[in-house]
Design a protein that fits this description.
The protein is of the alpha+beta class and 377 residues long. The chain has 10 helices and 15 strands. Among the domains are: 97 residues, Helix Hairpins, CATH 1.10.287; 111 residues, Sandwich (HSP40/DNAj peptide-binding domain).
């Protein structure tokens, strides 16, 4: 009886591997050994089943913890908390159909688009979440992002075929593009898994991409961010998604913009708001203060008798209108700052000031207490 191989060894990964890298390793090997890509190869089919069992065990936190502690014995006699393993083909479909532009959809002719008579299929669209600063949103910028995706295979120029090879009638479906599966008394027609519905397969597949016309690699894409863009906006890079199957058109890349929280400003449409503390003497006597903007500080006149919470609008220095020439405003909320520590001279001066002012110079205070006199009756 052959020895059951270590699950980490089966997937060719380290024991400290993360969830995303684990899935990536499984995807790569599962596509390589899938029976539909290796018809009649019993050894490839057994490796495919072995990969499914290994991935299912290590992708589940509870099963992985049990396996790390007890090895294969964790799944004997009800141990491991998983109730056995699922069908490897169902697991393959589940893994490759999820996560936005998965290989399963492309490999079996899913959401990437229909397969034409030559076996070409449009690649899947991709999503990339990008975080930018408020300054970058205001001024616009150009970013270069790095993504891991399926790109056209260079040796075969994306065709999936070796030089001089040609497409021939698919032996699995005999050119019909469909196979019939029996389900009890019923017969169900399904897309042929060998030719993906085209009715033809490549005579000599490219050894670099195994006939897909694309391989997984890291790509760099430049994204132009327009001035005035708002959070949760989507930018589309046409053709920046995954390469199509066997020379099919590439999908698109959608970049979702997220704007970092700013340390000074909050955004309300095209307006920017900020709170500025001023000395109570400036609020009482009036004066001039410096107010921040995204283009540098500007002067703002404060009239005498300004109350805390007053708002001053500085026009035309806010966020630019997207694809327009106008700009929003800066809304400055004034906070009157009261000194927390006074020396003897300062205290004496303020006490004299309070005696001189009386209630007539505090109309808000007087109005409030006039309204609540009944509470003290």
């Amino acid at each position: 009886m052959s020895r059951k191989r270590d699950y980490y060894e089966v997937l060719g990964v380290d024991k400290n591997i993360g969830e995303d890298d684990l899935k990536r390793a499984y995807r790569k090997l599962a596509v390589k050994f899938h029976p539909d890509k290796n018809p009649g190869d019993h050894e490839a089919e057994e490796k495919f089943k072995e990969l499914g069992e290994a991935y299912e065990a290590l992708s589940d936190p509870n099963k992985r913890a049990a396996y790390d502690r007890y090895g294969h014995a964790a799944f004997q006699n009800g141990m491991g908390g998983g109730g056995g393993f699922h069908d490897p083909f169902d697991l393959f479909k589940e893994v490759f159909s999820g996560g936005g532009g998965g290989v399963f959809e492309q490999f079996f002719g899913g959401s990437g688009g229909g397969v034409d008579s030559s076996g070409r299929q449009r690649g899947s669209d991709l999503r990339y979440d990008m975080q930018i600063t408020l300054e970058e949103a205001a001024k616009g910028s150009e970013k270069e992002i790095e993504i891991r995706k399926m790109d056209a295979c260079e040796p075969c120029s994306g065709s999936g075929a070796q030089k001089g090879s040609k497409a021939v009638t698919c032996p699995t479906c005999r050119g019909r593009g469909q196979v019939v599966a029996s389900r009890g008394f019923f017969q169900v027609a399904q897309t042929c898994p060998a030719c993906h519905g085209s009715g033809r397969i490549i005579e000599k597949p490219c050894t670099s991409c195994q006939g897909e016309g694309r391989v997984e690699k890291t790509s760099r894409v430049k994204i132009k961010i327009p001035a005035g863009i708002d959070g949760d906006s989507r930018l589309r890079s046409t053709g920046g998604g995954e390469a199509g199957l066997r020379g099919g058109a590439s999908g698109d890349l959608y970049v979702v913009i997220h704007i970092k929280e700013h340390e000074v400003f909050t955004r309300n449409g095209n307006d920017l708001a900020c709170e500025v503390p001023i000395p109570f003497t400036t609020a009482a006597l009036g004066g001039e203060i410096r107010v921040p903007t995204l283009d540098g500080a500007v002067n703002l006149k404060i009239p005498a008798g300004t109350q805390g919470g007053s708002t001053f609008r500085i026009r035309g220095l806010g966020m630019p209108v997207l694809q327009g020439l106008a700009k929003g405003d800066i809304l400055t909320y004034v906070q009157v700052e009261v000194p927390t520590r006074l020396d003897a001279g300062q205290r004496e001066a303020l006490e004299r000031f309070a005696e001189v002012c009386g209630e007539e110079n505090n109309p808000i205070h007087k109005s409030f207490y006039d309204r609540i006199k009944s509470f003290f009756a």
